[in-house]
Structure formats: C-alpha cells, structure tokens
Amino acid sequence: MSTGTSYRERLTPRWWAWLLAFSLMLMVAIAYGAAFGSTVGWILVGVGALIVILLLIITAPCIEVTDEHLAVDSAQLPLASIGSATAVSGAEMRDLRGPGSDARLFVALRPWSAAAGVLVRLDDPEDPHPAWLFTSRHPARLAAAITATMDC
Prior knowledge:
By secondary structure, this protein is α+β, with helices and mostly antiparallel strands. It folds into 2 domains: 11-58; 63-151, PH-domain like. The protein is elongated and about 60 Å long. It has 4 helices and 8 strands. Helix 1 (15-36) runs antiparallel to helix 2 (38-58). Helices cover 42% and strands 26% of the residues. The strands form 2 sheets. Strands 1-2-3-4 form a 4-stranded antiparallel beta sheet, covered by helices on one side. Strands 5-7-8-6 form a 4-stranded mixed beta sheet.
C-alpha cells in the first residue's frame, strides 16, 4: 500500500517570534559582554544565534496527511478514526481552547506560528480524545486534504 503525502506543513514561528528570541539572546550577550569583555559578548552573539535558529527550527512541529494517517508532530491518527475535519478561525480557536472547552481534546497549539487551525472530530469510541485541535497556517487546505484523503 502506498503512503503518498497529500499535505505537509511545518509550523515555524512567525517573524515576531524570531525577533523576540534574537532580542532576548542579544540582551544576554550584551550583559555578559559588559561584564567579561567584548570578546565574550561577540562569542555569545554567534553561539546564541546558532542555538536560537536550531531551537526554533527543531521544535517547529510538522503536520502531515498521508494515505494512511494524520500526523501532528509525533502523534499519529489513522484516517479510519477520523469522523470530520473542519477549518477553524482564530476566534473559534479561542473559544475551543478557552473556559468551558473539553479537557479531553488532543491539542497541539502553536499560537506564535498561526492563529487559526483545524478541528478533527474522531469516530472511534475507544479513543480517549473526542477530537484533535491543532494550529495551521492553511486550515482550509489542510481540512480539505484530510477530507479528500478519507474519501479515497
């Protein structure tokens, strides 16, 4: 059986999250540079920049829809367990994760990457999670890819 990928998305942080991370790293480098000399400060700028880049890229989750499953980072859900997939706007995301939300939901939220997301309702009574809620930059395309792959 083929496992072709019909959708793939990596949720790297938006520009402002990169700016914030680099600003914090730069403040630490300046503080150490002032205390221990400019050479130490410049070394920390170089090393800190590499660490920030690696951490922001490595920790960015990947969303993937294949012929067999939906994967959100390391969690996988067989397509046979999915009942429906719906694109959710930013306002709806706030309602779904706010007070009164279902604590049993599987959530993978990266608000620094995207405000909108997808709600995947499950059709498996044995699963402890009634639905998955996760962020996406292109929720309509992702929901359409899940629905199209389920129909095949």
